[in-house]
Design a protein that fits this description.
single chain, 383 residues, mainly alpha, three-stranded antiparallel β-sheet, 14 helices, 3 strands, Probable peptidoglycan glycosyltransferase FtsW, FtsW/RodA, membrane
Length: 383
């Protein structure tokens, strides 16, 4: 039996995960070495060494999730525990969280920082997939089938937006929408949700106007003005985007060579996190861009393929949710770096520096690998 299970694993997906992590580690060292010394006054390999620890921890979580049967996540007690846990963490964040970049997004445990909103992404994927899988018989009943998961989705998005972290709240909302679309719900039921959402927006609009100074802060407005005309505001609001353009443009087709970025020398604000793709473009040119976009696209398309092959509604929806999470986050990061959308501070999956994001992605991809394994095993050996 174990030999059959081992043969059923998708090793191409596992390889893509580790290759992107290692490529990201290499680029983090290149992008962060000067910033570490000049801005943070630490050793040049500080972020590189921390990311190595993150990758080791992420590998443990990845293999644990890949080996653990995904169908166990449907257990009602487990669902209650993770939902209660993430709500408790987000409430604790509002009270004890550390403020960074005008947002209370981090909880500090000794020398470790934890970002609860990252883990809310996987919680909403598991919860909505499990509830809609259990409610397949009355998936189009608005009160019994449609509404309960949406209530939690809106509640979590509201808590995260209150940090304020509108970027992550928007990502979680879009992930929830992809799960709803893949749940088997009829268009009529989805349309009712849209109407209900518009009505809720109208009801909340007076509150938004009342709190507009706190919601539409000077920093958030600056991101819009910098996005609309970065060269007009290149000494201020458009500074980040203009330097991202310079990095991408100077790299051209072939790149300037690994370690040869100029923009990472204090011009790009976060060269190892939000703007790491600009450094990759400057140093490695189209080859670096192809490695990142090609690798992430492979994972996303593989996830969609797994969802099509999977006959279990729960596994199908989780595969869609995990794939959409990676695709949405990558699109938002790349869109911000290239000026297609305003900069949001969303990291590039598996490439940017960060522990919470990497561990969340490793667990998510481990779950996806497990879904793939069970799907293949059932098709090959249970006919």
């Amino acid at each position: 039996m174990w030999k059959k299970i081992i043969r059923s694993y998708d090793y191409s997906l596992i390889a893509a995960f580790f290759l992107l992590c290692l490529f990201g580690l290499m680029m983090i060292y290149s992008a962060s070495s000067v910033t570490a010394v000049q801005r943070y006054e630490v050793a040049s390999d500080y972020f590189y060494n921390k990311q190595k620890i993150h990758i080791i921890a992420a590998s443990v979580f990845f293999f644990a999730a890949a080996l653990f049967p995904y169908k166990a996540y449907k257990n009602s007690k487990f669902l209650f525990a993770i939902v209660a846990g993430i709500i408790g963490m987000l409430v604790a964040l509002m009270i004890f969280g550390t403020i960074s970049n005008n947002a209370r997004s981090w909880i500090r445990f000794g020398g470790m920082n934890l970002q609860p909103s990252e883990f809310a992404k996987l919680v909403i994927i598991i919860y909505m997939s499990a509830i809609y899988a259990k409610k397949q018989k009355y998936i189009n009943s608005f009160n019994k089938g449609v509404t309960p998961p949406v209530i939690l989705l809106v509640f979590l998005c509201t808590l995260i937006a209150a940090e304020p972290d509108f970027g992550t709240a928007f990502i979680i909302f879009l992930i929830g929408c992809t799960i709803i679309i893949s749940s088997g719900m009829r268009f009529k039921s989805m349309w009712k949700l849209v109407v209900l959402g518009l009505m809720a927006a109208l009801v909340l609009s007076p509150l938004i106007l009342l709190k507009k100074d706190k919601i539409f802060t000077e920093e958030k407005i600056s991101r819009i003005t910098g996005y609309l005309d970065p060269f007009e505001h290149q000494e201020g609001d458009g500074y980040h985007l203009v330097n991202s353009y310079l990095a991408i443009g100077s790299g051209g087709v072939t790149g300037n060579g690994l370690g040869q970025s100029v923009q990472k020398l204090g011009y790009l604000p976060e060269p190892h996190t939000d703007f790491i793709m600009a450094v990759i473009s400057e140093e490695l040119g189209l080859l670096g861009v192809f490695i990142v976009i090609g690798g992430l696209s492979f994972i996303v398309l593989k996830g969609i393929y797994i969802s099509i092959k999977c006959q279990d509604p729960f596994g199908k929806m989780m595969a869609v949710g995990i794939s959409s999470m990676i695709a949405i986050q990558a699109a938002i990061n790349l869109g911000g770096v290239t000026g297609l959308i305003p900069i949001t501070g969303v990291p590039l999956p598996l490439i940017s520096y960060g522990g919470s994001s990497l561990i969340l992605l490793s667990v998510s991809l481990g779950v996806l690998v497990n879904i793939s394994m069970f799907t293949k095993y059932e098709q090959l050996y249970k006919k």
